[in-house]
Prior knowledge:
Elements: E1 6-9, H1 13-26, E2 29-34, H2 42-45, E3 49-52, H3 65-74, E4 79-81, H4 91-99, E5 103-104, H5 109-116, H6 118-127, E6 135-136, H7 140-150, E7 154-162, E8 165-170, H8 173-191, E9 196-200, E10 206-214, E11 220-232, E12 235-241, H9 248-264, E13 269-278, E14 281-288, H10 295-302, H11 306-314, E15 331-338, E16 340-341, E17 347-348, E18 351-353, E19 355-357, E20 364-368, E21 374-376, E22 383-391, H12 394-406, E23 409-411, H13 417-425, H14 427-430, H15 438-444, H16 453-465, H17 477-484, E24 489-494, E25 497-502, E26 504-507, E27 510-515, E28 518-527, E29 531-536, E30 539-548, E31 551-556, E32 559-565, H18 571-578, E33 586-590, E34 595-600, E35 607-608, E36 613-619, E37 622-627, E38 632-637, E39 644-645, E40 650-655
Parallel strand pairs: 1-2, 1-4, 2-3, 4-5
Antiparallel strand pairs: 6-9, 7-8, 7-9, 10-11, 10-13, 11-12, 12-15, 13-14, 15-22, 16-17, 18-21, 19-23, 20-22, 24-25, 24-32, 26-27, 27-28, 28-29, 29-30, 30-31, 31-32, 33-40, 34-36, 34-39, 35-38, 36-37, 38-40
Helix pairs in contact: 4-5, 7-8, 12-13
This protein binds adenosine-5'-diphosphate (ADP).
Amino acid sequence: MKQINKLLVANRGEIAVRIFRTLNRMGIATVAIYSEADRHSLHVQQADERYLLQGSSLSETYLNIDQIIAIARECEADAIHPGYGFLSENPLFARAVAEAGMIFVGPTAEAISLMGNKKEARALAVSLGVPVVEGAVGNTAELTDKAGEMGYPVMIKAASGGGGKGMRIAWSEKDFRELLESTQREAKNYFGNDEVYIEKYLADPRHIEIQLLADHHGHILTLYERECSMQRRHQKIIEEAPAPNISGSLRNKLSEAAIKLAGQIGYRNAGTIEFLVKGDQFYFLEMNTRIQVEHPVSEMITGIDIVREQMMIAMGKPLSFTQNDIKINGHAIEARIYAEDPAKGFLPSPGKVHFHKPPSGKGLRVETALGDHGEISAMYDPMVSKVVVHGATRETARKKLVKSLRHYVLLGIETNIPFLIDLAGTSEFAEGNSNTNLVEHLQQNKKSFQHDILQKELFAMAFLFAKPEKTRAENSTWQNIGYWRLLPDAHLLINREPITHHYFYHNPHHLSTENNHMRKDYRLVERSDDTLRIDVSGNVHTLYYHARNGEVYFHHEGVTAVISHARHLGRETLRAINENPVLEGESIVRAPMHGTVVKINVKEGESVAKGDTLLVLESMKMENKISATAQAFIKQIDVNQGDIVENDAPMIILTDKIMH
Length: 660
Ligand code: ADP
């Protein structure tokens, strides 16, 4: 048995913060590592010691085994916790930590290697009589034949794949060859291993997983299951425990299969065995040999701190409870908040956060590394935080989730919060009838996640009520407001879209609207630096706001908007917004998000047509084409390939004049 006195977390963001919290309770000293981009992250502030990683790319920083081990040695840490992602499932890292004489809070390198190869893990499951989805291995010709025999659709998977990468669905023989090759290419690029296999694609399965704890003394327990069927593009977004509508017999069968698999490989650590489920039939999917993003829901229903158990196991202590001691108490649901814009096809939305006020309360956990303000960097995963709620019943938890999401204030960047509120409010989710395609299905049946008219009106009124800015006397948004107050119309940009807002001015605290002879009164009840309370015909609404560069960011019940006076942006931008097919005058093409310019397709002096790609901006590992909104000439290019640009940074100037 070995004592751990000081631990380095080889990770960043919310999971590092979460691990530190338990270590603090256990009296273990904490060490953070961080990249330059993470300088202001809470995970850096909350550690007892912090070390800057040299370099900027991922492989130079959070994936740099040598550098991380050197730091751990230097600060005399006796253990390393890998978190999830990054090096957490890299057997070379587990081995390097052990060879450096430190404790790796995880399983052996051998167990990681075995379970890290999905093909081998499948074979192991088959050998133990654990069901797997019908599948096949082999060379290209063999796989093509077997896919035909099995019948389409077929899923092509990279043996080393993970995180939704290295996975494609072939709907017919026609596209099988091409998809096979592209999966191999992607697998080679991302995982350095082009090995693939195929599986029958199940229609609308559920994803249910078992949380395990296994110690060095042969004890393996489960913290029961989690339902993770609410996914977008095969990535989890809402998870819960226990799984709704699960039979006792299915729960037992999943637990038995999970324990059998972990036992066979002498697993120790917390771990998760994932299954696909159709009715009462289940299929082994993969094992994750690390802590998972969604672990808090299991903690909330069992009262067990999984990170603490990981630490005890790593120190060689036997589990201090038995299966019978673990009871399910109530229901827990987690929602992942991502920096992406649901109104724009989930485009990544990294950038500066001006105001962050997560909800708080009993039975509510918000896991995040973002302080009151800060930045969501385009370099990393777009997850901002996790909202985890607990209730006596599933319905109480669900209602609490919706309420918490409505009270989650985050201004400056777009998030998927409105989308999560919608999802959690659907009858399908309320009834617990989810499957892995439900989210996509709901999305298709919903037109958009744009604001409704009433919400726009409230935002517009809030803008007119908001506190005057003291700086910049001339040309400030607030001066303009004073001017409009005399007028029944305000020309505003809501989320950069022009609207004309008709209203009546009574006094600075009382405005009204009239639609179809229905009068609505808006009264300012209270105004502080960041909050407005507005009485709308007897109902008081709370809005949060933050003014910045002539624009005001608002939050109301989970929905955000950025508003400015239309005149403030100037004619060119307005014209660009209106997407005139032929440009008049000049227009500045700005970066729609923080990112890296990976390719510039045009040269100064060239002409472009509406829709032509001007340049490609990479943000959060996604390439985004920036195209011309009108026919124009390239007057000036202000960026170079490889440049990192801020949100709204000017990149290219377009003009209607021929260039010589
Ligand atoms: P990753 O390791 O990239 O997360 P997984 O193998 O865990 O990939 O699968 C992720 C998700 O992909 C599953 O939760 C499920 O939604 C979908 N999926 C995987 N295999 C199949 C299959 N054979 N049939 C239908 N859906 C599948």
